[in-house]
Structures
1.
Amino acid sequence: MALIALQAMTPNAIAENFNTTRQAVSKHLRILTECELVKQEYQGRKIYYSLEIEKMKEIDKWLSQFRKIWQTRFNQLDKVLSTIKKQKK
Amino acid sequence: MTKELLFDFTVDKAAKTVYITREFDAGLSLVWDAFTKQELLDQWVAPAPYVAKTKYMNFEVGGKRFYAMVGPDGQEAWSIQKYTSITPKTNFKLFNAFADKDENPQLPGSEWDYNFSEQNGITTVSITIYNESFERMERLLEGFKEGFTATLKNLENLLATLSQK
């Protein structure tokens, strides 16, 4: 993912960066394409793959919202704890 | 209170698990109470502007807590939790499911595992949440784009495939 975030690449070029075959890379890319996380562009016979930055951002956004809920919760708990500690003194 | 309190939040999509770790500037007994006593839980567990309302809570193995997150518009989202294991001031586990207002659970649910430990007056709480379905986790977030679940589901499958290798 980090590789194709920088530039569009062919499956062959991607496979060269890993200890794997072009077929294995193609299979992963196909799934990623189905998820719309990666897009294909045809140039002649070659297919170049690149990252759908917006989709990745959506996932980050989704996770960060979830994270934020917990942050808010825990900040509230900090307040509850400090109030109780003061009352005990 | 100058010390930065640790907050770690990670999601393992392939394992459908969320890991949360947080430090609190308070002793173990107090933090344990804040997680296991109804009157304390209701003060913090709903992220503002939501408020938590516990109808009943029996903190014992096999016991249940039935509560709602009440939105600013008065809308109630009910959940039911069943305590499956309790080791006082160390660990407790529960099974959580969304429910309707008549206590009918909507499965699948999620399994929660809480761990507590104290060091130098700072209490660390580690929470592991295992979700039977990823969509369920998604439901926790209000108003998020429809159809995105499908994408996440695909991603989840993908990660599962990749992790088998």
Note: Residues 25 and 93 of chain B are 23 Å apart (CA to CA).
2.
Amino acid sequence: MENLKALYKTPKSLIKKNMHYCPGCGHSIVHKLIAGILDEFDIQDKTFFVAPVGCAVLMYDYIDCDTVEAPHGRAPAIATGIKRTKPENIVISYQGDGDLLAIGTAETIHTANRGENITVIFINNAIYGMTGGQMAPTTLIGQKTLTSPKGRNLLTEGAPIRACELINSLDAPVFIERCKVTDSKSIIKTRNVLKKALKYQIEKKGYSFVEILSSCPTNWGLSPIDSNKWIDEKLTEIFPVKNFRDNGV
Amino acid sequence: MSKKELMKGNEALAEASIIAGCRYYFGYPITPQNEVPAYMSKRLPEVGGVFVQAESELASINMVYGAAATGVRAMTSSSSPGISLMQEGLSYMAGCEMPALIVNVMRGGPGLGNIAPSQADYLQSVKGGGHGDYHLIVLSPSSVQEIVDLTILAFDYAFKYRNPAMLMFDGILRQMSEPVVLPQFKEIKSDYEWALGQGKKQNIIRSLFLVPENKLELHNLHLQGKYQQIKNEINLYETYLCDDAEYFFVAYGTPSRVCRASIEVLRNKGVKIGLFRPISLWPFPDNSLKKTVGNANKIFVVEMAYNQLEQDVALSIENKDKIVRFNKLGGAIFTEEEIINFVIKNV
């Protein structure tokens, strides 16, 4: 019940305005969840975001925290620079699949491997949203995109990369979990996961990574409802929703 | 009390940056600047600082960007190929007006080139290097003492103008040992109103300007206004025996030292020659150069690069037909004898 109340209230850390995200897009849900947690921990004033290249670059229009815009893929390096100078502040790197797993793979892996005491929130929608729907590192085999018009081909484009599993091969990370935001149950679950990740950062436990399977109805060419169905039925098959590591307790 | 000690160029650079208040260094190994991260990894923890060896130059410049966003003095150092990788980050930092120090100990190029001294990154450094209309403040020392002085000055300029500053020199100065006087440690602040965590209003460090439509243009006009101010206020150069000179060397860094050393011999042979040494490469001391060499019979532009410094010399003066170029490429260096013979042949 407490969770539900927190979920449906407009958080103080959220700027009240219409978001530019498409109907059914997962970003707006995740923004609201994060803002609510900032309120709950009373850390809005000490939290810094690193915004990615992509649709969420404008996240500072919605979450009322100091924010740095990162070059494409470099968000974890910027987060490292911030955290090393301001270890008492909370630093959140918010990234999409192209950002985190294509152009920024090196930064993703090495920041996790150093065990930087930051939280990386990974929005995985299996496509490049902002640029109009190109194939992403997490695009499923057979999934049609602007640049895989016949569907992603395993032999020429490779298989989707699983971020949690990759990061789980490293020693340093403290918390790794994959969630989704397709219904109220999974949204509440995701809220709890995000809360745990941030709690560990507050407690200086180390690096936490939360992947959120999120919909992109516009570029998938599906209705918001069918998009959520596609996540539940197809995406979770390749990207299992589960906790991979919890060394924070 | 300031003390005098014998230091190598790269060590002097590292210690000077700490004197300047830098406590955050991010870098990636590349020759010929490896003494800098080695020194910093040992020295920074002693003064409560942080050293991070990044996974690439892309990461190190963005770590510097993140640190700079909090208002602290942060730096990185690298050499030519690594500096090429940093151009994206430098463009962002210039766009976001983030102050920091970037050091380029230049080596031979293009490509992997070699690890010998070079000045072939001149145009990359002074004309922009990354995408968009921007400038770095670029200073170039020619002695170990000047490495110390300009490192501190470059940090001060970076924060005065909220702009990344670059110190660049060739690999000879990096390993040259000279006596230096180290100044007192600087007291610095980091609570700039533009920095993260000032708690007054939401601070956004950004280079994206979408709405209204002319916002990016206005931002660029603001940057250009700042660059004009920098041009008006920074004009660093040195002249040597220019007052009665009929011939001139224009050179910076190590080649300027070889030119300077050859002046006495040339004057004894009856060639009245002087040296104009630009120290700020951007902004370039164009008016001062123009005034100095206005009546020159010949202007010898001596650089370890091909027609790079020379382009700025030509843009600065009216008598560009007097320019005689003397270049060394691919890591080769000038000897005094070569320069003397070249001048004698060409006067």
Note: The mean pLDDT of chain B is 96.
